[in-house]
Amino acid sequence: MVEPRRVEPFVWEVPVGTVEGMRVPGIVFGSDxxxxxxxxxxxxxxxxNVATLPGIVKASFAMPDIHWGYGFPIGGVAATDAEGDGVxxxxxxGFDIACGVRLxxxxxxxxxxxxxxxxxxxxxLGARVPRGVGTKGRMKLTRSExxxxxxxxxxxxxxxxxxxxxxxxxxxxGGALADARPEHVSDKALSRGAxxxxxxxxxxxxxxxxxVEEVLEPVAANVMGLFAGQVCVxxxxxxxxxxxQVCTDHLKVMDGLMRRLGIEVPDxxxxxxxxxxxxxxxxxxAMAAAANFARANRHVLADAVRESFEAVFERSARDLxxxxxxxxxxxxxxxxxxxxxxxxxxxxxxxxxxxRAFGPGHPQxxxxxxxxxxxxxxxxxxxxxxxxLVGLSxxxxxxxxxxxxxxGRAMSRTQAKKQMSGSELxxxxxxxxxxxxxxxxxxxxxxxxxxYKDVAExxxxxxxxxxxxxxxxxxxxxxxxx
Amino acid sequence: xRASRDAGWELLEHTADVGIRAWAPSMPxxxxxxxxxxxxxxxxxxxTRSETRRLSVHGEDHAGLLVSFLNDLLWVHxxxxxxxxxxxxxxxxxxxxxxxxxxxxxxDPPPEGLGVKAATYHQLYxxxxxxxxxxxxxxLDV
Lengths: 482, 142
Description:
heterodimer, A: alpha+beta, eight-stranded mixed sheet, seven-stranded mixed sheet, 15 helices, 25% strand, B: alpha+beta, Archease, Possible Chaperone, Chain: A, domain 1, six-stranded antiparallel sheet, three-stranded antiparallel sheet, 9 strands, 39% strand
């Protein structure tokens, strides 16, 4: 059993030598209770395994929502030297490339405007948002249009009149990664995922109608247009089958290539090649293309939200104030510059179940938010609160400007289903006043709130560790599940 | 779980995801059981057959072949929108696997199933059972 030692109130170290071949220590952020869970489910061992990757810089980091993943822990952050011997590992991004969260705000108030029509609103959203396993999406594309989505991200649907022009400003990377290379996305990936643009998917993906329950940082909340009692909509989805297949394809290539390059890793899912190898360039290009697909996917889903609100309230989305607060990814690798030992270095930063969180003044934060720092969106588990956070400048030094991505699972699917049936959970949510539009009641309890850690403790630990500050807490009133 | 003493499959626990352990007297049969396990996990069974497809999969070794085979089943399912009435692994060599699948329409309403993203290399195992025969273990990202 790995036993990290505390180095600060919310910072724990996994020393070099815990696993053979560690090049740097592991650093886990979290409270005592969260750390205990990470040790018990063997996720801390995975932090140590990641520390063996060639060219890893400073430490193998884990956020407070860390849990057992496959290869990388979920909640893991690893930066490698992109100009030296650093590697890229598709497992450090995961299969759902650029899975992430988007938050829309509105001018609507819960008690006055939405509570009286909640049932109709959730029913309309449930009917207009394609969801579930393998579902076809809202936007039908020709082959050449798919390539455009992969290159242009949210700018493609915008060019077809889907969404509001200002949406792209409030997406990470302006809604599209510039170095996307659709030619490295296979025919298999295209045939599997291209029909799914504008679909929610299944599993832990969801769309929620939420109410801002409490504002904890009034200045930042005001800049983001958030106020207590306001109705918002949160969307959690990713790159669908297209992104899954991109990871599968390139992981297979690297699994074979790694052996020929003489790279050894403690878990085969950590397969990797040097960032400067042409196989890495191909993966990065395909990954960026899949990330653009993910952002376009959430953008098209947001269009379904606006359309549903327009149908129920008989006012335009603009009139309802349904504007984008922000859109973030929490499964991605990006080439970024960070200060390491006082020097600026170009690093390949893997975030697997972790969110980038730039502090105030960072040039990649949209001008409207630059004074307060980058908004970070943390979805709760079904029926529990979600949070809006904001990046802190100190996180650059502490975690390569990274923070948590959600509550983090604490219980397996089988255990979760044993505790309560799907219909019992649905009744329990209804008793809490939460309107539900599920796809499959039988699978609902796999995503029950008790299967996850306490999201409030996770975001408090991020604040305690100096990674992010809590701006607002939102509670769900309507849930549309994949 | 679909199992007898000689051949079958069962689910393995994982905090976020799900694993499959399959066993059978021979490697093709063990791979086939793992494939049937995946189909059931996805809720991708079909009652009638409308199309037969041959799959030819290449890999670095037996374990890599298992991952690629399961990922090809996933790709066929998502790209065609069809379910599996039968999964037969015909042959497994060191670097190649040949399989035949019978596809058909998925019942309406579809059976409950998990959205599987991929078969992973995490804690992947292909080897001998204690009782003889072949055992495989693979984790799925769901």
